[in-house]
Amino acid sequence: MPGGDMAKPLLGRRNMESNPDLTPAVGRTIGILGSGDFARSLATRLVYSGFQVVVGSRNPKRCAGLFPSAAEVTAQVDVAKKTDVIFVAVFREHYSTLCDLTDVLAGKILVDVSNNTEINHHKESNAEYLASLFPACTVVKGFNVISAWTLQSGPRDGNKQVLICCDNQEAKRIVAEIAQVMGFTPVDMGSLSSACEIENIPLRLLPAWKIPVFLALGLFLCFYTYNFIRQVLHPYIWEQKNKFYKIPVEVVNSTLPCVAYVMLSLVYLPGVLAASFQLHYGTKYRRFPDWLDQWLQHRKQIGLLSFFCAALHALYSLCLPMRRSHRYQLINAAIKQVMEKKTDAWIEEEVWRMEIYVSLGIMALGLLSLLAITSLPSIANSLNWREFSFIQSTVGFIALVVSTLHTLTFGWTRAFDENQYKFYLPPSYTLTLLVPCTVILAKIFFRLPCIHGRLRRIRNGWEKGSCGPTQTMPHIVEERLLTRVSGGLEELHPATEDAITWLDD
Ligand SMILES: Cc1cc2nc3c(=O)[nH]c(=O)nc-3n(C[C@H](O)[C@H](O)[C@H](O)COP(=O)(O)OP(=O)(O)OC[C@H]3O[C@@H](n4cnc5c(N)ncnc54)[C@H](O)[C@@H]3O)c2cc1C
Ligand SMILES: NC(=O)C1=CN([C@@H]2O[C@H](COP(=O)(O)OP(=O)(O)OC[C@H]3O[C@@H](n4cnc5c(N)ncnc54)[C@H](OP(=O)(O)O)[C@@H]3O)[C@@H](O)[C@H]2O)C=CC1
Ligand code: HEM
Ligand SMILES: [Cu+2]
Ligand SMILES: [Fe+3]
């Protein structure tokens, strides 16, 4: 395989120099069983990270040409004889075909890199299955969250974390070192029984987006239908006017901002509900209902989708005046004006209304861009927790308020105009205002001195009818941590973070 990107200096080299403890790992001979996509990328990365590589194939002659020349491609048995650390880059279904090697493999470290195609498809994890086939070996689970593609393009792109688990500390340390020299960040996930969890992670990445995407599509469909009825169907049925040209741009540009705005308010609603629960329970150590926990964990995705819709809305709005339909309407209006011998169509109030709502819209989008930028991991990592939560929580809420002002100035007095009620349906902006205004009012309510003081005490660990945190704490922390791990790699819920600091104390 040609060097290309791989030949450039690696992060791994730098790690190695700055950490002299890692040097023994380099020069070590690493074995790979299997000659597929993963094996090839792994071999290439290992060779360029300074390791000796031996690849074991059932048919070494056929696939030798696909590997870098520095890697030795040989029979499976030879790999087992030559190395102590062996990556098993073979599908689970074929593990049993390796059983001929049981004797030569005894005492070696086997790294299981396999993934499943479905969550909990098999009773035990692949790694535990491998360990049961080779009881004389030490099995380490790892690297399955790294795709062959990421191995090739280098750890600069994509996820740098390699989750590792194993029952033997020494074996785990060796594999972690290898990962580090290759430029990845090893993460210790504990004993081999965590393998099931690690194997399910690549399958769980998408579900974090599934609910938010369906939510966005559902809202889009509802609002689109609503706007279509009001803007296209109503004039067609009532006045026999053909307004179907509005379908691709105008109806879409009435729908997108509604979706963006409602989704933005749905990012801040669960926080309000959480605060209400805490006030109601009189403690922060009681678990939220599952649906609220789920909702709190999906806020990032909901927020980013809201930003996406808002950005599209801005682009559509910019393009409104350059459409042919708009030009014809302008000309027609001008002709009508001439026939009526009017010279000036300037309406001061309308002018001001538009100047203000466009300006507010731009500001809201600017604030949302800040939130979107800080959700990039590299930017988030350069902020401390307080800075990050100020931008996400406070600036985001200001964006919601500015969006509300934008919507209100856009709508102006149309909510009170009878002609605006098509089929008794009010203008869409009045509907979108419901949830956001509830959220804003609730936030203001929680700011009232008496309520705020109580909330702050609750969040500092005070409980109704007791002094200080109770015995149940560690259990709840454990529960929260578990939901966090199973929900993917989200930020800690603030309550959990507090509880952990409390435990550390
Ligand atoms: C464009 C965009 C990008 C986004 N990117 C991200 C992102 O990258 N990561 C992310 O997490 N979110 C992201 N979000 C979602 C959102 O900005 C955050 O979830 C934000 O923190 C929500 O603010 P909040 O004030 O409602 O909630 P929080 O500040 O989380 O507070 C929610 C509730 O938690 C409880 N609480 C708060 N503090 C404490 C405490 N100290 N002790 C106990 N309980 C407490 C309270 O009940 C509170 O009401 C994004 C949103 C948008 C629009
Ligand atoms: N591709 C990827 O991005 C990722 C893959 N993985 C995991 O890595 C492992 C390998 O994946 P990948 O390289 O894509 O798969 P491939 O199908 O490309 O390669 C599998 C290899 O297994 C070897 N093998 C050994 N015994 C058998 C057998 N009895 N029947 C068939 N093949 C056998 C073959 O090599 P030979 O003929 O030389 O013996 C074959 O090349 C899997 O467990 C996968 O889950 C994990 C993360 C990412
Ligand atoms: C550059 C930024 C923005 C510009 C230029 C802009 C411009 C506009 C324009 C021109 C309209 C009127 C559309 C029409 O005539 O049908 C409008 C409506 C609206 N905008 Fe924006 N906007 C911006 C950002 C935002 C943001 C960030 C939000 C909220 C997240 C938002 C929410 C709304 C809503 C809810 C409506 C009412 C839609 C309706 O009910 O028809 N806008 N905006
Ligand atoms: Cu499983
Ligand atoms: Fe299977």
From TrEMBL:
It catalyses: 2 Cu(+) + NADP(+) + H(+) = 2 Cu(2+) + NADPH; 2 Fe(2+) + NADP(+) + H(+) = 2 Fe(3+) + NADPH. One of its GO terms (molecular function) is ferric-chelate reductase (NADPH) activity. It is found in: Endosome membrane. Pfam families: F420_oxidored (PF03807), Ferric_reduct (PF01794). Residues 1-22 are annotated as: Disordered. It comes from the Eukaryota. GO terms for cellular component: endosome membrane; plasma membrane. Its cofactor is heme b; FAD. GO terms for biological process: copper ion import; iron ion transport. Residues 29-116 form the Pyrroline-5-carboxylate reductase catalytic N-terminal domain. Keywords: Copper, Endosome, FAD, Flavoprotein, Ion transport, Iron, Iron transport, Membrane, Metal-binding, Oxidoreductase, Transmembrane, Transmembrane helix, Transport. Residues 258-401 form the Ferric oxidoreductase domain. The chain crosses the membrane at residues 211-229, 259-281, 302-323, 356-376, 388-408, 428-446. It is a multi-pass membrane protein. PANTHER family: DUDULIN-RELATED (PTHR14239), METALLOREDUCTASE STEAP3 (PTHR14239:SF8). Belongs to the STEAP family. This is Metalloreductase STEAP3. The lineage of its organism: Eukaryota, Metazoa, Chordata, Craniata, Vertebrata.
